[in-house]
C-alpha cells in the first residue's frame, strides 16, 4: 500500500515537472514576473541582422545589437524586465498574435499589411534597400537584373521591394529565413543578386571584399517597434522614444552601432 502510494506520488511529480518544462518551451513566460519582481516583457527578434540584432560568437551567445539596447532602455525606463527570444523573421508577427512574445524589435518596417495585424510605434530609424552582388557580376543597375535570380529574406520589406522590381524587370525571386543564408547563396552562385538593407549589408561588405552593391532611392519608412493590437504600451513606448531623441540617448545608440554622425 505504501509502495502504491509512493509510486503514485512520484508519477504526479514527474507529470507536473514535464508540464512545467513544456510550458517554458512554448514561451508562456510572456508577461510573467522576473526574479526581482518586475513584470517581464518578451521581445521577439531575428538575430541575423547586424548591427540591429545578432550573436557575436567571438564574444558569447547573447543576442546583442542596436534593437536590443533600444529595447532595454525603453523597458527599463517603464519598469519592466526584458527577455529576448530569437526566431525567424517571417514568424514574428504570428508569434506575437499567439501571445508568445510581447513586442517585436527586428528592424521591422511598418507596412500597411503589417499594421492590420499589429500596432507600430513611431519610426526610430531609417535605412535604404541595397542591391548586392559579387564584384565580377557587373550588376550596377536594376536593368542588369534582367533574367537574374534575386534572394531576399522571407517576410521582409525587401521581399516586397523585389516584387515591385519584378513588375518592371524579369527576375526570379527566392527567399530564405536568414540573412547569412542569403549571403552564402549569393557567394556560391545560387543567387545572382540579393536585396538587403544597406545598414546591415555594410557589415558584411566590410568583412568580404568580393561583395559589392548599390543603394536604391526609395521612400523607405524606416523601422518601428511592433506591439499587439490595442496595446496600452504603444503610447508609453512612443513617449520614451521621444524622450530619448530629445535627450540625446537615441543619437548615442545610433553612433554606437552604426558609427559616424547620424542625422
Automatic annotation (TrEMBL):
Ionotropic glutamate receptor C-terminal domain segment(s): 40-260
This protein's UniProt keywords: Lipoprotein, Palmitate, Signal
InterPro entries found in the cross-reference section: Iontro_rcpt_C (IPR001320), Solute-binding_3/MltF_N (IPR001638)
One Pfam family, short name: SBP_bac_3
All residue ranges annotated as the Solute-binding protein family 3/N-terminal domain in the record: 40-261
UniProt superkingdom: Bacteria
Signal peptide (from-to): 1-20
Protein name: ABC transporter substrate-binding protein
Species of the source: Sutcliffiella horikoshii
Upper lineage: Bacteria, Bacillati, Bacillota, Bacilli, Bacillales
